[in-house]
């Protein structure tokens, strides 16, 4: 398959990607649209597909407008933003560590962010909700730094060791979170426990705006990390030969990955395995460079979380299962298969 290249401004800005990339992007966009329309129609209040254009333009029954714009639309938008942030976070972690098993929920990042947010809810409930992303980022960074330090070995990098250390640290942090939920004031603990389920069912336009702002702030940094990640694909030694300051590059990429995961966790709680599944799905759709891979991962994450939320609220209606539970049911078997495959060719 040949590559396709375009350039702008006299060659100062150029894009090069495999010809299969636009088709993969189009397929994922169509999948997002299909899941979105289904999400807007599904529920106890019936909406017809031919009513959607009028309702989107603000015309129609007042109750239908309220259901669409105040309940279902922000829920779908939040699911897409959370899924995109978690997926790109996973793709960045996998690229920086050269580890296809890396995922914010598996290597302690989501657990560190969750512990920080639960601490705010249980111990300092009067703190502004705007403090959650900051606390989640701090908790995620601390967890990521601890895992990097503990997994560093004398024989260099080891992907499986990184994963196993991350799982152990995540378990310890989760134990601390459980202690807060067990011994905290019952009302505060109940609120934190509902958030811990990982769901977007209470999403409103406020959190959607915060997520959109966070994603927009991360976009320039995402453009910057494309080149370092491209060099890191060849390994640390070759990247050093290319003139890349590997230590600083990895620190920047991992920090950005932690920030994106923290923003998503602060808004919707921990939703596991999205950062693992979406990049793997993007990689299997088509051959792509780092930039295209990040775009495909973001779209795949939006599809996964929005579909998980749709399935969770319709499979046993009126009972609603959180998206985090659905993603775990799907993600655990795939993770086991991947780690077994990895173990056959790696040594601890």
From TrEMBL:
Superkingdom: Bacteria
Main location as per UniProt: membrane
GO-annotated cellular components: plasma membrane
CDD domains for this protein: TM_ABC_iron-siderophores_like (cd06550)
Protein name: Ferrichrome ABC transporter permease
Keywords per UniProt: Cell membrane, Membrane, Transmembrane, Transmembrane helix, Transport
Bilayer-crossing regions: 21-42, 76-93, 105-124, 130-150, 162-183, 203-224, 253-278, 290-307, 319-340
GO biological process: siderophore-iron import into cell
UniProt keyword Secreted present: no
Localization terms from the record: Cell membrane
Pfam families: FecCD (PF01032)
Family listed: Belongs to the binding-protein-dependent transport system permease family. FecCD subfamily.
The organism of origin for this protein: Marivivens niveibacter
Molecular-function GO term, any one: transmembrane transporter activity
Bilayer topology: Multi-pass membrane protein
Cleaved signal peptide residues: none
PANTHER family, per the entry: FERRIC ENTEROBACTIN TRANSPORT SYSTEM PERMEASE PROTEIN (PTHR30472), FERRIC ENTEROBACTIN TRANSPORT SYSTEM PERMEASE PROTEIN FEPG (PTHR30472:SF24)
Record flagged with keyword Signal: no
